[in-house]
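Input set for joint prediction.
Command: fold jointly, output tokens.
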Amino acid sequence: MNKNLKGALNKMSNVKEAIEKHTTKDGLPREAFAIVGDPEDPETWKLPHHTKAVVDRRPRYYHKRIDLAKTTVDWDRMPAAVAALSRGGYRGERVQAAAEDIIKAARHLAAHYQAANKPVPDTLGALI
Ligand SMILES: [Zn+2]
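tokens >
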């Protein structure tokens, strides 16, 4: 095998390994969650609301300015995330988090609505 090609293939498998090494929860990287207590502990990641494409760790995209946060919002999951932050909770259960983390998450989700020119839900508005 050509030496350069062999080197390139080795490099590719290293990249693949690096991508797979990243911890996920339900197939999602931590960046997909509005609350991340401990980056190393998926149990502390709450309110998933992005698709797994929220991070693109492929090196060739490293220098590209793509607004992944904006384009990867999973709008199907947003209502549940919003409800979990509200005082009433999602199906009666409010997310377990520090008050400041709840406010931060509410601001984060509200920013997605604003960026998409959607009305910010009242339940978020009441928190921020
Ligand atoms: Zn987000």
